Amino acid sequence: MKKILISFFFVFLLMVQPVKAQPLVHLAFLIIPETTTATTNMNMNNTPPPSSSGVIFVDQSKPFTITVDDGYSRPALKKLITLKKQYGASFTCLLFPYGAALKDNEDLFAQLINLGCEVHNHTYHHIYFRNTTAEQQKEEILSTDQAIEHVYKLAKQKRPNIKYFRPPGGFYDLNTIRICKENGYRIMLWNVITEPNGKNLSVDERARYIYSAPKGSIILLHSKERDMDALSKALPVLLKHYGIPAH
Ligand SMILES: [Zn+2]
């Protein structure tokens, strides 16, 4: 009886505890690798196991995926446009602007779509889903969904069939998982970030995180000029490492 009660307690705990995205920054990436070239020798066994919620941390179907969050800085978005023009389809580029930033910079996002980037969902007001109701979460996700539809119309492009949601700060709970499933979204987090623990690193330090990412990494950048400059330095290294021609 005691065992049953204890089990029940733990099931109860699981139900009421918010699911904190984990890891926000995987321990393997807290230390900048010593090597100065792209490497795949990191222990991929440290990669978080696939979770039953379907949350994505890595994508082994690609050498690497560049993701750019937020989208408020026009100078940074312009730098990304220049990079995308230079490197074309040689790298996958997923953009996660929050709705308000997307609305403000629709013209640039439409250009990025036409250059082969995809636009996905990052809430409307960049809300952390920690003490939010299911209704608030749904409103944040669906209002951004409409803004995304609009920018694809502006770009005269078809929206990709697979929709991704990236919760700001990596915070989500069981409601988020349910709302995403009901609305055809998959939750995409990351395994490499250029601002571990919110550190404001130099361009070179950020570039090292990018080009040292193990195969299949989902690399999180922000729409900041510093991150775009780091990407500019790291891309040639990564493409050379994987033998991908810049086209
Ligand atoms: Zn964000």
UniProtKB/TrEMBL annotation:
Pfam families noted in UniProt: Polysacc_deac_1
GO molecular function terms listed in the Swiss-Prot or TrEMBL record: hydrolase activity, acting on carbon-nitrogen (but not peptide) bonds
Occurrences of domain NodB homology (ranges): 62-247
Name of the top EC class for this enzyme: hydrolase
CDD domains: CE4_NodB_like_6s_7s
Enzyme Commission (EC) number: 3.5.1.-
UniProt keyword Signal, yes or no: yes
Name of the featured protein: Putative polysaccharide deacetylase
Organism: Coprothermobacter proteolyticus (strain ATCC 35245 / DSM 5265 / OCM 4 / BT)
